[in-house]
Amino acid sequence: MNSAPQHDQYALDVSGLPAHAFGPSSPMWWGTIGMIVVEGVLFALTIMSYFYLRSQSPEWPMRAPPPDLLWGTLNAGLMLVSGVPNALTKRWAEHFDHRRVRLGLWLCTVFGLLLIAVRVGEFATLNVRWDDSAYGSVVWMLLGLHTSHLITDTYNTGVLAVLFSGAPLENKRYVDVSENAGYWYFVLVSWLAVYVVIFWGARL
Amino acid sequence: MSISAADAIRLDATWSDPPGWRGWLCAVNHKTIAIRFIIASMAFFVAGGVLALLMRLQLAQADNRLLSAQLYNQLFTMHGTSMMFLFAVPVMQAVAVYLVPLMIGARSVAFPRMNAYAFWVFVFGGVMLYVAFLAGQGPDVGWFAYVPLSGLHHSPEKGVDFWAQMITFTELSGLMEAIVIITTILRMRAPGMSLSRMPLYVWGMLVTSIMVLFALPAVMLASTALITDRLVNTRFYTPAHGGDVLLWQHLFWFFGHPEVYLIFIPPLGFISSIIATFARRPVFGYPAMVLSLVATGFLAFGLWVHHMFATNLPELGKAFFTAASLLIALPTAVQIFCWIATLWRGRLNFRTPLLFVLAFFAILVLGGLTGLMLASVPLDLQLHDTYFVVAHLHYVLLGGAVFPLFGAFYYWFPKFTGRMLGERIGRWQFWLFFIGFNVSFFPMHVLGLHGMPRRVYSYPATMGWGELNLAATVGAFMIGASVLLFLINVVRSWRGGAAAGENPWAAGTLEWRTSSPPPPANFHLPPVVHSRFPAWGEQEMPAHVSGLSVTQREVLITSGPDARPDHRLRMPEPTPWPFLCALATSALFIGSIYTPWAVVWGALPVAIAATLWFWPRRARSELPRRLEARP
Known about the structure:
The structure holds 2 protein chains of 2 kinds. By secondary structure, chain A is mostly helical. Chain A has helices at about 25-55, 70-95, 100-125, 135-165, 170-200; one strand at about 10-15. Chain B is globular, with a radius of gyration of 25 Å. In chain B, strands 2-3 form a two-stranded antiparallel sheet. Chain B has 2 domains: about 30-575, Cytochrome C Oxidase, Chain A; about 580-620, no CATH class. In chain B, helix 4 (about 70-105) packs antiparallel against helix 5 (about 110-135), helix 5 (about 110-135) runs parallel beside helix 17 and helix 14 (about 385-415) packs antiparallel against helix 15 (about 425-450). At the A-B interface, strand 1, helix 1 and helix 4 of A face helix 6, helix 7, helix 8, strand 1 and strand 2 of B. Strand 1 (about 10-15) of chain A pairs parallel with strand 1 of chain B, so a sheet runs across the interface.
């Protein structure tokens, strides 16, 4: 199938190279980084809007008690723990361990679902509605933005879990698992920032 | 050093889009998508231009009653929106999606399906806005949609909602294209094309695309907050509930000023390509050129408040933004001096592409100088919201972007189609455009100094503005005639222009080392690069890459600043899913204008389409699995 004879002095033969790569060599890695930059800027600008509105207001939070700490803190703890199966899945994917990757993906999906359930509790105890004040709007925006990440990445992980529960796959699907796990770290770290702003920015 | 005829045929078949109607929906080849993208964004350019002509007719004489004030407001909103969101930024990305892979010796863009999806989302967003406009639901609050005017209280009609969702469509598309272009440049350069051998145009697109990632989220956040204020009563911009109207201006201009450079930097790359070819020598000062592009990219984010000098901000802050606005003239000046040095010592070949580039110098310098004037706070306060600003921004944007873009079309049209654009009609087009432009926009400086405000649909005869306005209208119609000539030239040349051959301009970069138009896989033999201008000078060995499949869409991924061969990657096949996914996305966005629940129910089809898009087909998975080696 090669486009040139085997011993072509004019040619740089690449037929011996592998058909996938993990990390920065892979276009998927750069695509994921690109998404992370975009979403990261979105979070940063929303947080800046939060503090901008706060700087324009004599009281903060505006006409509302701060959000209850319980659910958000529980979420932060669970989120940190979810880093463990995530790291394991990433490592197993990079070793092409089909059985363990499948296990890891299902575990990560369960964690995602748990986190979404806890998130419902957080929304219920924000102690402010989005239409009460600009403070309420920006808090709902921040939490909503993060929730959309939580839902989409949990869904992605679930799709991969189903995919890996079937027949063996091309190697580049393991790169997908590795990048999906990399993205989860972003969901995790961005939550820590959002958590500090929503739950402690209203108290300090 | 050649490919067998049988392999060439197989390679072409492997990389071709499907024929017929399936090709319409399933195409993923970057050249097919790019040509469609260019045509779509040029269609919005023409539409925006027609709206401008209507405005100029209205303003041609004092006390004119051709258009109502309401319609006039819609016209200038649609004109600005079309030109900024549906033409200027997308057309630059569209051209890049065509040229970048060819210039770096790649067979495809990274993520060809995402590229197709971004195109469809863009088209659906633009069409939605125009359908709304033609149905009498056009936005009428300016292309910047300042609150409180764009709030529900002052604009209860749906026009603003369509405008805000158009932002979501176009910015989603723009962000995806930026990721496609960055990844293509960083991972798909031909072996040996180190960063220091990359064409200046590719550098320009890399800087532009990175800027997109930081700039576009700001306007998406701003417009999302606007639409939630309007639809579900959030209070971001409602002062009575603790909101703040200047928040809009900060977010909008944090995007809006870098946007000018998103429009301006790609043409700098066109100019570097055209000047090198028509001066028949490399552009002088390559490191200075690259550093200037990077410096422009950084400084562009420190200027946004100069759009807000007329608001109640701290004076010290304004002084900072004045300084930054003056500072950004420096990297632009460095580039202009480098080009002049190149032209000075070159043997010039005065063809139409070069004419457009030379006009750029005159017009951009004028626009840049009025920009320096406006950067000064006291002068800005005098001239704010007058026609002086209209003159300035058109000198910068047409001079900086549209002139070089036409130059680029004349330059690369032979590569796109295999045919030369007509030279004689090209010269007519150029002079009509150049003279018409100055007749139209130069008088606006004077009108602005005389105090004529922007965005007025009429003015009384006693103001004495009639003659200059009439001149501006005459100039505008000359521009219209020029664009019409261009379209005629394109249609005639595409059908029966002179055959171009591989390298009609004797240019030096890689896109000229393949046939015109390029074969589906771009290069039958992917090149190996040894210098900045591979088509100039001796061919060194190895000359090309071998060992990539001819029956699979296989590309070579390279890594590091030196573009070392890293691995082979199989690119995806044509598929309708990006199209269908874009349809589902559009349903979600448009539905959410009417009910917030559309975000919930609309997400289901999007999720299904995205999953099926991603889902591997077993036959396709198993074949390469048998072939692929683990490291």
